[in-house]
């Protein structure tokens, strides 16, 4: 299987309110409205985030790697979003995160990985959807010196 695009979607009970909240979090209005029940942002090449008008479905977890956790938390707080202080992730030398929820209970994780001199290192977050509770299967991959490290994230 060759994957060409990744779609991260959350289900909204209040479509307009969720769209506004996520626009504030992302820092801009949606890039497109492909259908009346969907607002969509391009987060990175081939990665799209969607708010769906789908009140019957349950909550989702979204994890986003960002360059500056402190700067983003400051920006979000100025926009009146409640975001906790960054926390060091136990067992990692360089991973920090801030975990919170959107107004409908979807989990949002902001991640920053820095090396010993403070520069940002690549990190990937993925879920194993084949498992019954995919949130328990989240892992972070990053480089620590010359070795690749994979660690589960417990939500």
Automatic annotation (TrEMBL):
The residues that cross the membrane are none
> Span of the secretion signal?
none
* Limits of the Glyoxalase-like domain: 10-110
Q: Which CDD domains match?
A: VOC
InterPro entries in the cross-refs: Glyas_Bleomycin-R_OHBP_Dase, Glyoxalase_6
Protein name per its UniProtKB record: Glyoxalase-like domain-containing protein
Q: What species is this protein from?
A: Sulfitobacter dubius
Q: What is the lineage of its organism?
A: Bacteria, Pseudomonadati, Pseudomonadota, Alphaproteobacteria, Rhodobacterales
């Amino acid at each position: 299987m060759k994957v060409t695009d990744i779609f991260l979607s959350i289900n909204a009970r209040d479509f307009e309110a969720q769209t506004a909240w996520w626009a504030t979090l992302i820092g801009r209005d949606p890039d497109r409205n492909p259908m009346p029940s969907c607002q969509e942002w391009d987060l990175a090449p081939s990665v799209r985030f969607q708010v769906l008008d789908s009140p019957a479905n349950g909550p989702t977890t979204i994890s986003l790697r960002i360059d500056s956790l402190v700067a983003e938390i400051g920006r979000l707080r100025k926009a009146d979003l409640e975001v906790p202080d960054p926390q060091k992730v136990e067992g990692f030398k360089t991973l920090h995160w801030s975990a919170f929820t959107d107004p409908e209970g979807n989990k949002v994780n902001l991640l920053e990985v820095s090396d010993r001199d403070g520069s940002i290192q690549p990190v990937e977050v993925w879920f194993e959807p084949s498992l019954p509770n995919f949130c328990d299967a989240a892992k972070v991959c990053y480089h620590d010196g010359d070795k690749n490290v994979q660690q589960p994230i417990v939500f």
